[in-house]
């Protein structure tokens, strides 16, 4: 890679503008480097796309292993250095945060857009014209997708199950995908809230708790909250029916002295009186709880040993140092109010659960809060034989849950199997004919890039991509807009009839992210990497072309 210092010529004398050690890459060289780095990242995840995609094993510097085919996880774990390649990682993060699935599609599409733009750059087409064409093609593509999308609502369980199934296909959880999809749909339906603006779903209200042991099929939905804590005192009940639950954000302990304050005790009698007073204060705290009719206490802070004793005597089940997120989940599930001052606790602040029980799961005690009346927070207990399996099942469940939520947010879905991409490419080619300038070539390039999804699906399934693309185009020319590639049979089929469907939002976000990132990378024609600082630290090296 050639680099050059930034030099001005004043009166025939060269003057260095930037500090020593600064490197600069300009023009086509800079564009070529950035495109190569971005394409390398896309190529790294391309083989994971689709049901027949392969997995990646990622080993970090301390030997920890992650095995996955989830695009966002792969790119997050890879130690990527090149600045343009980091922009590709941002695409995956944005996609994951916005919709939770379709990360590989977004990255692969961005890589293909840059590959096609490189061909246009070699034809001496200016990057500004390419980005203008890409912007128009992106807007048209989003329009086309919205036109071909079909409706779905929260009562259409069959369609929601198919969306969840499609999200999990190709992952380790696939063999139990039917059971897991059912759990995901039930969880979403439980936490969904109907408002004036439609269905509101906060996926944070679905908590995933992992425990090794058993098989993937042992994964279960708890219509309530699962707390990874044990009952604090052995004399406390392990099961409470018709539970009245108090949620405390205050310690059941005596406050320690602050600053330099001291207590002087100069006789055994005074010492005994002090201890008696402390015990009396703790007993008063417990009495306040008992008076409200509470029989279960979840405390975000500590519970003193003496307080534990009195709670046990009163037949109250208690857990301490419960995470804030768990306390908030309990509030949503049981209807309890979180109390920060014990003096304010009343019977109206209590929540209800039909059953609170401590049970052993894979050798560890956990507290199950179940049979809540209208829980707005639920827990999915994810099970699996090994740590790596359980992590991948958790990722699959996240994809399924977020996929259903994304479908319901817009109330729309599209066919899978590369069908929408082929249809968008077909319509974009028609749209390109309406231009007379060079933007036409950029719109056509965008159309060609869209076909990378069905082509990758075919390649990853061991099928001939040229034959399959030709077959798909032929079917779409007959106006069968839902025809996609069934990678299991190798045939072109109606994906909606097969139940291979995806949320519209995932496709929209993937195209937006990919197009915007490609445009940004294309507009860069100068890379200036900073030199050494005044403190004498060494200058950062310019990453090699395509390095990650």
Write up what this structure looks like.
The model is unreliable at 534-540 and 542-548 (pLDDT under 50). Helix 6 packs across helix 11 (387-410). This protein has helices spanning 27-46, 71-77, 83-98, 103-122, 127-148, 157-168, 177-191, 268-291, 305-313, 324-334, 387-410, 419-432, 439-450, 452-460, 465-477, 495-498, 504-522, and strands at 7-10, 13-16, 23-26, 56-59, 65-68, 150-151, 193-195, 198-200, 206-212, 220-222, 225-227, 239-248, 296-299, 317-319, 338-339, 351-361, 364-370, 378-384, 412-415, 483-486, 491-494, 501-503, 526-529. The chain has three domains: 7-150 and 414-529, GroEL-like equatorial domain (GROEL, domain 1, Orthogonal Bundle), CATH 1.10.560.10; 153-223 and 377-410, TCP-1-like chaperonin intermediate domain (GROEL, domain 2), CATH 3.30.260.10; 226-374, GroEL, CATH 3.50.7. By secondary structure, it is an alpha+beta fold. The chain is 46% helix and 19% strand. The two termini are 16 Å apart. Strands 11, 12, 13, 14, 15, 16 and 17 form a seven-stranded mixed beta sheet that branches. A three-stranded antiparallel beta sheet has the order 6-19-22. The chain has a three-stranded mixed beta sheet with strand order 9-18-10. Strand 20 (483-486) and strand 21 (491-494) form a beta hairpin.
């Amino acid at each position: 890679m050639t680099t050059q210092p930034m030099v001005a010529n004043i009166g025939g004398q060269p003057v260095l503008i930037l500090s020593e050690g600064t490197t600069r890459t300009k023009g086509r060289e800079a564009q070529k480097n950035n495109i190569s780095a971005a394409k390398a990242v896309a190529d790294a995840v391309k083989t994971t796309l689709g049901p027949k995609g392969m997995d990646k094993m990622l080993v970090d510097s301390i030997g920890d292993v992650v095995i996955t085919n989830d695009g966002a996880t792969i790119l997050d774990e890879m130690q990527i250095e090149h600045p343009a390649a980091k922009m590709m990682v941002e695409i995956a993060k944005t996609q994951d945060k916005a919709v939770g699935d379709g990360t590989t599609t977004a990255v692969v599409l961005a890589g293909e857009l840059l590959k096609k733009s490189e061909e246009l750059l070699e034809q001496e087409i200016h990057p500004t014209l390419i980005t203008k064409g890409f912007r128009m093609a992106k807007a048209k593509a989003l329009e086309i997708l919205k036109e071909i999308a079909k409706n779905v609502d929260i009562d259409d369980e069959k369609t929601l199950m198919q969306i969840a199934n499609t999200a999990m296909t190709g992952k380790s959880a696939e063999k139990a995908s039917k059971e897991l999809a059912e759990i995901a749909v039930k969880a979403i339906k439980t936490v969904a809230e109907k408002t004036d603006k439609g269905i509101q779903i906060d996926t944070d209200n679905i908590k995933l708790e992992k425990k090794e042991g058993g098989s993937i099929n042992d994964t279960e939905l708890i219509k309530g909250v699962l707390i990874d804590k044990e009952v604090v005192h052995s004399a406390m009940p392990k099961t409470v029916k018709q539970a009245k639950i108090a949620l405390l954000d205050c310690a059941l302990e005596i406050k320690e002295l602050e600053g330099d304050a001291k207590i002087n005790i100069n006789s055994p009698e005074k010492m005994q009186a002090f201890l008696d007073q402390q015990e009396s204060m703790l007993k008063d705290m417990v009495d306040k709880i008992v008076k409200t009719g509470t029989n279960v206490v979840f405390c975000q802070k500590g519970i003193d040993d003496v307080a534990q004793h009195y709670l046990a005597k009163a037949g109250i089940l208690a857990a301490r140092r419960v995470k804030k997120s768990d306390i908030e989940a309990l509030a949503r599930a049981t209807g309890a109010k979180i109390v920060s001052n014990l003096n304010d606790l009343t019977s109206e602040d209590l929540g209800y659960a039909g059953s609170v029980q401590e049970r052993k799961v894979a050798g560890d005690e956990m507290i199950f809060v179940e049979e809540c009346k209208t829980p707005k927070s639920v827990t999915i207990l994810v099970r699996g034989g090994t740590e790596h399996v359980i992590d991948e099942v958790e990722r699959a469940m996240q994809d399924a849950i977020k996929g259903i939520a994304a479908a319901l947010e817009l109330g729309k879905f599209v066919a899978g199997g590369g069908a929408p991409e082929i249809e968008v490419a077909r319509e974009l080619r028609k749209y390109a004919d309406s231009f007379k300038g060079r933007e036409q070539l950029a719109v056509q390039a965008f159309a060609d890039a869209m076909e990378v999804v069905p082509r990758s699906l075919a390649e990853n399934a061991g099928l001939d991509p040229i034959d399959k693309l030709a077959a798909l185009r032929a079917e779409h020319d007959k106006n069968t807009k839902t025809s996609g590639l069934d990678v299991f049979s190798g045939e072109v089929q109606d994906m909606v009839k097969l139940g291979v469907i995806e949320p519209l939002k995932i496709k929209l976000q993937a195209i937006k992210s990919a197009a915007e990132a490609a445009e940004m990378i294309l507009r860069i024609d100068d890379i200036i990497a900073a030199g050494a600082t005044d403190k004498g630290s060494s200058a950062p090296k310019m990453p090699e072309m395509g390095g990650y």
